[in-house]
Amino acid sequence: MDENPALLDSRAELSEFLRTRRARLQPQDVGLPNFGRHRRVPGLRREELAQLAGVSVAYYTRLEQGNGRNVSGEVLDAIARALRLTDAEHAHLTRLAKPKSVKKKRAARQQHMRPALQQLLDTIQSVPAYVVGRRTDILGWNALAAALFGDWGELAPGDRNWARICFLDPRSRDLFVDWEQKASDIVSYLRMDAGCYPNDPELSALVGELSVKSEEFRGLWATHDVREKGHGVKRMHHALVGDLTLSFETLRLPDDCDQSLIMYHAEPDSASAQGLRLLASWGRDASSVGSSKR
Q1: How many Å apart are CA 175 and CA 172, to the nearest integer?
Q2: Distances (CA, A) of 209 to 140, 169, 227
Q3: Closest CA to 32 of 45, 19, 20
């Protein structure tokens, strides 16, 4: 991997994000007349978007060209409304247009999970749980998470990363029934990281590596989609216990907003709950066998 990867271009990121958001809207979506079937651009024209946002075409054009230096929060709010952005997309737009200089220093800081968090994870035995940080790095996990997702302890530290696992490890496609959705979610998280930390060389290197090695990643990265997903449901097929339908909750850690505790659970008395119990039992047995051999 390149030790000095090119950093993500903040101006290009802003430009492409606005272009892709504009392209997904049609005039009839926002109450504008649609004159003719043959439009030269997909989605709204710049003139139409500027009209909806109440700004001049020249002003919006400069912004879409990546020049957000002097844009006000009020204008960004108006453009976000015109583009019908979600809260996550609105926040991403603001970070791209008005990046904070302190984030270069923050991006250089190494990620460390507090030892007490690992102790907490070790006490959680009935549900899979792990802590994820920036760039989808997996920082800590419990035994049941290892039994469900694979033993991350066997991986090199740099490979304990959801994006690398999802796009470069074929076993992830067997585990996640809705692999395409999992992949899309992961790319959206990386996009948000890119907005928060445009000067992070490790993030740039990760994006570059995946872009070279995975056509599917390249396609998803080009969509510029961003979204928060604090909870939801994942369907999985585990080689040992079969089909599992698990809900997950994401809890952002109060002393480090870049780290989140993610926990999976099954409906009580369901087949998935029984599968987790079997998996937990198998994990304990495997651990005891491993301990006896050391």
Answers
A1: 5
A2: 24, 14, 23
A3: 45
